[in-house]
Amino acid sequence: MILLEFATACQDGSLRVWQVMDVEGSGSVSVQLKWSSEPSMLAASGIVLNDTIGLSAVNRKLLEQHGATGSSADWNAH
Q1: Dihedral over Cα of 32, 47, 70, 27: its sign
Q2: In this predicted structure, what is the pLDDT of residue 51?
Q3: Which of 6, 8, 19, 37 could form a disulfide with 15 if both were Cys (CB 3.0 to 4.6 A apart)?
């Protein structure tokens, strides 16, 4: 079930639309990027990821390279 949709605007001029969804039966939520405008670059500095599920090792490394910190079950498993 969709709980919330919101948009963000960044200093680089890009726009993003996000969707917050209830993860059925888990008591957790999932935040998903629905779409993003140009420029197409990844900025993850200051992002703290805790208790993420389904994050691949490749995506984890990419986020780390761009400044993400934190821990998750997936990060600790690799």
Answers
A1: negative
A2: 75
A3: 37
Sign, CA dihedral 7-24-77-72, equals positive
Between CA 65 and CA 17 the distance in angstroms is 23
Phi, psi of 69 (to 5 degrees): -135, 170
- Residue 75 scores a pLDDT above 50: no
CA dihedral 6, 66, 39, 51 (to 10 degrees): -20
Name the residue ranges covered by the structural domains of the chain. 1-39, 42-78
Q: Kindly report, residue by residue over 30-63, the tens digit of the pLDDT.
A: 888 888 887 667 777 777 777 777 778 788 788 8
CA-to-CA distance for 51 and 58, rounded, in angstroms?
Answer: 17
Question: What's the CA gap between 50 and 71, in Å, rounded?
Answer: 5
